[in-house]
Specification:
The complex is a heterodimer of chains A (about 190) and B (about 180). Chain A is α/β, with parallel strands linked by helices and about 190 residues long. Chain A has one domain: Double Stranded RNA Binding Domain, CATH 3.30.160.670. Helix content of chain A is about 35%, strand content about 25%. In chain A, strands 1-6-5-4-2-3 form a six-stranded mixed beta sheet, with helices on one face. In chain A, a hairpin with a 5-residue loop joins strand 5 and strand 6. The relative contact order of chain A is 0.22. Chain B is α/β, with parallel strands linked by helices and about 180 residues long. Chain B has a single domain, classed as Double Stranded RNA Binding Domain (2-Layer Sandwich). A six-stranded mixed beta sheet of chain B has the order 1-6-5-4-2-3, with helices on one face. In chain B, helix 3 runs parallel beside helix 4. The longest helix of chain B is centred in the first third of the chain and has 19 residues. The interface between A and B is large, with 37 and 41 residues.
Chain lengths: ~190, ~180
């Protein structure tokens, strides 16, 4: 395919996707009395593979590695460092379920407006766990329609990056001064 | 520009059609650095842990034979050689077959212009969706280098070996079409 046509095709697909899907919901919570800025280092939990509910994503390293690199980037931007003896362990979980949005069926009258919407809902949960006490300190997640996303690798990678960036936005950022102070103290 | 516009409309039409029709949707993920010309031979490898499988398919010898046959034929056509017993292959292949209950919105209903809530035909149709996932693993590094899949309704198919056989042949061929070309 000619590159410019391909771009056009991609644009059309993207436009379809944006108009077709419900918005992504992003939330997080933090353990009471915890200041995450006191934790400076992190690493990934070992062997974190769990069933996702979708055979396309189970044991899919292309998905797993993209999530990890997106989280690595966001944590790096916030001054967290990946080390072998970390303060924090990072875990994630992804799940896919088909959901029926019946909101539209509640409209009375004309059946044109009471068509329910069915879509694949993807959830990505990111956990930060205290490496020493094994307690959950922070959890952030994003939930939204991913219809057609998994089938298209480029689109999936983009959605992962976006979702992770939005989830991690709620994470307190270590200031440049704090990070520098650590460096000089070390 | 008119040509591009027509092209875009074709895509739109295709996307809309494929959402409603029962033909399989296919997809694939690939290692961005994959160079398939490095690989010559393949063999069937062990499956992963975490299998999301359906016994009606995976414990059905006819299903297994048919999938393996279709994959071997498709890979041979792409220039990959099934390894002789006892030799080590460049690529290891395995697959997962899964069936899940899914719901479809029946958009054909829009044809009924006016109906009150009570006499509207049902909008939601439940069906069994079969997903076939085909994994290609680099035997040397034991890493997944390519995964392709197809998902389609398998309603009625489980009791009709002929339809099943035809569907398997067609979907495996479509999945393998997505393998990157050998450079």
């Amino acid at each position: 395919m000619h590159p410019s046509r391909f771009r056009l095709a991609a644009l059309v697909t993207l436009a379809l996707a944006i108009t077709g899907c419900a918005s992504t919901e992003v939330r997080s919570y933090v353990a009471r009395g915890i200041d995450l800025r006191e934790h400076r280092t992190y690493n990934w939990a070992r062997d974190d593979a769990r069933a996702t509910g979708d055979p396309r994503l189970d044991n899919n390293r292309f998905f797993q590695e993209r999530v990890q690199s997106a989280v690595d980037e966001q944590l790096g931007q916030r001054g967290f460092q990946k080390t072998d003896a970390p303060d924090l362990i990072v875990r994630y979980h992804a799940g896919v379920t088909q959901v029926i949005d019946s909101r539209r069926t509640e409209n009375s009258g004309d059946c044109h407006e009471c068509e329910p919407e069915v879509y694949d809902q993807g959830t990505l949960v990111i956990d930060l766990v205290d490496a020493h006490t094994d307690t959950l300190l922070w959890r952030g997640w994003a939930k939204g329609s991913i219809d057609g996303v998994i089938d298209n690798q480029q689109w999936m990678e983009q959605r992962i990056d976006e979702a992770v960036a939005r989830i991690m936005r709620a994470l307190p950022s270590r200031s440049a001064r704090e990070a520098n102070r650590d460096k000089t103290a070390a | 520009m008119p040509l591009l516009l027509r092209f875009a409309m074709t895509i739109l039409a295709t996307a809309t059609l494929s959402a409603c029709a029962t033909t399989a949707t296919v997809g694939s993920h690939v290692d961005h650095d994959l160079d398939l010309s490095r690989f010559r031979t393949f063999d069937w490898g062990p499956a992963d842990a975490l299998p999301t499988e359906d016994a009606r398919l995976t414990r059905n010898p006819a299903f297994k034979d048919r999938v393996q046959g279709a994959v071997e034929k498709g890979l041979a056509a792409r220039g990959f050689q099934l390894i002789a017993r006892g030799d080590t292959a460049d690529l290891l292949i395995h697959y997962h077959a899964n069936i899940s209950q899914r719901i479809n919105v029946n958009h054909a209903d829009s044809a009924y212009v006016y109906c009150s809530q009570a006499d509207c035909p049902p909008d939601l149709v439940e069906y069994e969706a079969g997903t076939l996932v085909l994994d290609v693993v680099d035997a040397r590094t034991n890493k997944l280098v390519w995964r392709g899949w197809a998902r389609t309704s398998v309603d009625g198919m489980l009791r009709k070996p002929d339809v099943m056989a035809k569907t398997i042949n067609e979907t495996v061929a479509r999945i393998l079409l997505r393998l990157p070309p050998k450079l």
